[in-house]
Design a protein that fits this description.
By secondary structure, this protein is an all-alpha fold. The protein has one domain. The protein has 3 helices and no strands. It starts with a helix and ends in an 11-residue tail after the last helix.
Length: 84
């Protein structure tokens, strides 16, 4: 994957919610932040997470959080362990 594919996915998602100018600013700012971190730290490396990372990660974490809150509201204490 390339920066373009990941940022294209981010841009498409953000455009649905806002104006095109602010979308370009958000994508530009994320690219600028990545470049700054890569240039300021000699040991930093860039790993492209792919165009679906934002959707998959946010959705998964949100679902986990919501299920835990629901169980807590029912009086259960929840401890999660990753599946092997």
């Amino acid at each position: 994957m390339t920066w373009a594919s990941r940022d294209a996915a981010r841009s498409a998602k953000a455009t649905a919610r806002s104006r095109a100018a602010s979308t370009r600013s958000a994508v530009g700012r994320s690219i600028l932040t990545i470049v700054w971190h890569l240039l300021s730290d000699d040991q930093a490396t860039f790993t492209d997470l792919g165009p679906t990372h934002v959707d998959n990660r946010a959705g998964t974490q949100r679902a986990i959080r919501n299920h835990i809150r629901g169980l807590n509201a029912l009086g259960y204490q929840v401890t999660l362990q990753p599946a092997a």
